[in-house]
Design goal:
mainly alpha, MetI-like fold
Length: about 240
């Protein structure tokens, strides 16, 4: 593409965004809908796993920490392939008929982001004041009250993990493509639509969706910076 073609595609992309193009905004809505459901599932699991790893003392704890750290570099396409085999007709969960559906995408994004969220939450718990739990229990608080006391103490670190997890979910393409199938008006999200439109040479929609992802990335990073600033307090 020459410079004039790029400029024309960018102009068309802005027109699609600000004109309220139904097809474009349905793709954006699908992305946010799936990723918000995935983060709602992953967050309590990640916090619980991280809390048990930080405060628990049980056989295999060090191995679990190692596994979660190793899974940080697991390729998204491998996660998608594994889930595809599990959910396919011949797979162990084939009878659920989840393949090429939004629930399958939710499961895939949850599995993809969970290790990152567990590790970041674990770092938050380990960086917090361990005496918060002990003090709450000594004062007679029930375990769940003491648990929420610890959560409040490390809330900014946990929120950073949630933000990072959501960013990874909504920006991935491998899992969504393999278990979602990129079905128009159902499982086609921002990243799979960008891949499809670019491969067809239709750059305007891809640029518009890419612009949405860039705005989201800047917004998430800004929010993370604000949270870190609050945690550190005034200089």
């Amino acid at each position: 593409m020459d410079s004039s073609s790029i400029a024309t595609a960018c102009l068309h992309a802005m027109q699609l965004l600000f004109s309220g193009d139904p097809a474009l905004w349905l793709i954006i809505w699908t992305s946010f809908s799936v990723s918000l459901r995935a983060i709602a599932v992953a967050t309590p699991l990640a916090v619980l796993f991280a809390f048990l790893l930080a405060y628990g003392r049980f056989p295999g704890r060090a191995m679990l920490v190692y596994v979660f750290n190793a899974l940080l570099s697991f390729p998204a396409v491998v996660v998608g392939l594994t889930l595809y085999l599990v959910l396919s007709r011949s797979g162990p969960l084939g009878d659920l008929h989840l393949l090429f559906s939004q629930p399958a995408m939710v499961i895939g994004q949850t599995l993809l982001a969970l290790p990152l969220m567990v590790v970041m939450s674990l770092v938050a718990f380990q960086g917090g004041d361990k005496r918060a739990w002990e003090t709450a229990r000594t004062l007679g608080a029930r375990p769940w009250r003491a648990f929420f006391t610890v959560l409040y103490d490390v809330r900014f670190g946990l929120l950073a993990g949630v933000i990072a997890g959501f960013g990874r979910m909504i920006s991935e393409v491998g899992v969504s493509l393999m278990v979602g199938g990129n079905i128009l008006n159902y499982t086609r999200n921002i990243t799979t639509a960008i891949a499809l439109e670019t491969s067809k040479g239709a750059f305007a929609q891809g640029i518009a969706l890419g612009f949405v992802l860039m705005l989201l990335a800047f917004g998430l990073n800004l929010l993370l910076s604000v949270l870190q600033g609050r945690k550190e307090g005034p200089l």
